[in-house]
């Protein structure tokens, strides 16, 4: 019998399995499809900074903890697996392009939560990135923002989990639970059952059915995010460039990611001409010379969003051995190290590095969702 069954093989599930196995726990991970091939794979890999001493909200505290863990985790995975996950500090420019009120709000937030923010003059902004459109006249810089290559990081985690003895099982959608004495006794798939001492729901946008089946309550909604990939012979910019929820992410090999839409369309993953056109227009408005870059491909992912955009993290009240870590929306990759550390502490009954009450699923239990 496993000590823990992790349900969901995205970056959250893999990270939790890796952490638990590192403490000697016997872990089985069940994934409905291919491990690491859903929303975690589809993201652009942006890793914003954070400062635990300055964090004023639960999300910023979790982000700050994750920020501190990324470099060490990257080194550990590379040394054990030989996989380079592409982690590097590239810096980020948040530029004003349309909504000045929002930009001012973002600047104030980063000054409060991080402190090391460089508000730039127009000349300084264009000194950093000469290829920016002359229409862009205002921005601030986060020098400690990083990035990672999502598929590479997931590949490293898969290998790392296997090395630590995690039993990785793909193609096993979990359809329900059996309960006994106020606890989960068995996980049910279409043609097999699995048992463990403890269970953790980490299956992202698909979590609602299991939360309902278990009586946990709560709801997670899929939000489609489309991304376009271009290839440039020579990178015209080196910083990540953000405008609210949209961004340009340059890779060292000349690839450029343009994202992302936020679309409430259920479980539809297909790209649309409207979505792709909007992203390409956005990119060339910021960096005009991207109009001659080669179009490589486009894809989308289904990001898991809760009603208030805070993830569910912790034990399920009234079910002795069931836990949840899902609903990270756009922050799954970035917050995966901190979430995994927190879930390891919760499941193995260790001291917690932060208060988890704001992430409790109980805030949405027995409540009619407004999603």
Automatic annotation (TrEMBL):
<dbReference type="GO" id="GO:0009228">
    <property type="term" value="P:thiamine biosynthetic process"/>
</dbReference>
<comment type="pathway">
    <text>Cofactor biosynthesis; thiamine diphosphate biosynthesis.</text>
</comment>
<keyword id="KW-0784">Thiamine biosynthesis</keyword>
<dbReference type="GO" id="GO:0009229">
    <property type="term" value="P:thiamine diphosphate biosynthetic process"/>
</dbReference>
<keyword id="KW-0560">Oxidoreductase</keyword>
<dbReference type="InterPro" id="IPR006076">
    <property type="entry name" value="FAD-dep_OxRdtase"/>
</dbReference>
<dbReference type="GO" id="GO:0043799">
    <property type="term" value="F:glycine oxidase activity"/>
</dbReference>
<feature type="domain" description="FAD dependent oxidoreductase">
    <location>
        <begin position="3"/>
        <end position="344"/>
    </location>
</feature>
<dbReference type="Pfam" id="PF01266">
    <property type="entry name" value="DAO"/>
</dbReference>
<protein>
    <submittedName>
        <fullName>Glycine oxidase ThiO</fullName>
        <ecNumber>1.4.3.19</ecNumber>
    </submittedName>
</protein>
<dbReference type="InterPro" id="IPR036188">
    <property type="entry name" value="FAD/NAD-bd_sf"/>
</dbReference>
<dbReference type="InterPro" id="IPR012727">
    <property type="entry name" value="Gly_oxidase_ThiO"/>
</dbReference>
<dbReference type="GO" id="GO:0050660">
    <property type="term" value="F:flavin adenine dinucleotide binding"/>
</dbReference>
<dbReference type="GO" id="GO:0005737">
    <property type="term" value="C:cytoplasm"/>
</dbReference>
């Amino acid at each position: 019998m496993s000590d823990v069954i992790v349900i969901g093989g995205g970056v959250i599930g893999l990270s939790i399995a890796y952490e638990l196995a590192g403490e000697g726990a016997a872990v089985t991970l069940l994934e409905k499809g291919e491990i690491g091939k859903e929303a975690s794979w589809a993201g652009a890999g942006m890793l914003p900074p954070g400062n635990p001493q300055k964090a004023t909200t639960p999300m910023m505290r979790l982000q700050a903890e994750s920020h501190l863990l990324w470099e060490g985790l990257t080194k550990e995975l590379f040394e054990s697996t030989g996989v380079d996950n592409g982690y590097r500090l590239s810096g980020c420019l948040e530029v004003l392009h349309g909504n000045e009120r929002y930009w001012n709000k973002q600047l104030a937030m980063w000054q409060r939560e991080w402190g090391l923010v460089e508000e730039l003059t127009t000349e300084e902004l264009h000194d950093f990135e000469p290829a920016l459109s002359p229409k862009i006249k205002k921005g601030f810089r986060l020098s400690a923002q990083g990035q990672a290559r999502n598929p590479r990081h997931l590949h490293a985690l898969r290998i790392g989990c296997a090395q630590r003895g995690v039993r990785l099982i793909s193609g096993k959608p979990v359809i329900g639970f059996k309960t006994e004495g106020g606890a989960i006794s068995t996980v049910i798939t279409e043609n097999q059952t699995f048992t463990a001492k403890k269970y953790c729901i980490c299956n992202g946008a698909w979590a609602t059915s299991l939360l309902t089946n278990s009586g946990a309550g709560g709801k997670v909604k899929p939000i489609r995010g489309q991304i376009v990939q271009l290839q440039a012979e020579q990178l015209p910019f080196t910083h990540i460039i953000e405008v609210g929820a949209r961004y340009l992410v340059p890779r060292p090999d000349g690839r450029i990611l343009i994202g992302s839409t936020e679309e409430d369309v259920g479980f539809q993953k297909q790209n649309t001409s409207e979505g792709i056109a909007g992203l390409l227009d956005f990119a060339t408005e910021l960096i005009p010379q991207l109009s001659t870059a080669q179009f490589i491909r486009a894809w989308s992912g289904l990001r898991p969003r809760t009603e208030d955009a805070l993830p569910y993290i912790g034990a399920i009240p009234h079910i002795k051995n069931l836990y949840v870590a899902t609903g990270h929306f756009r922050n799954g990759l970035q917050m995966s190290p901190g979430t995994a550390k927190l879930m390891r502490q919760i499941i193995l009954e260790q001291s917690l590095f932060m208060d988890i009450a704001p992430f409790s699923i109980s805030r949405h239990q027995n409540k009619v969702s407004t999603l």
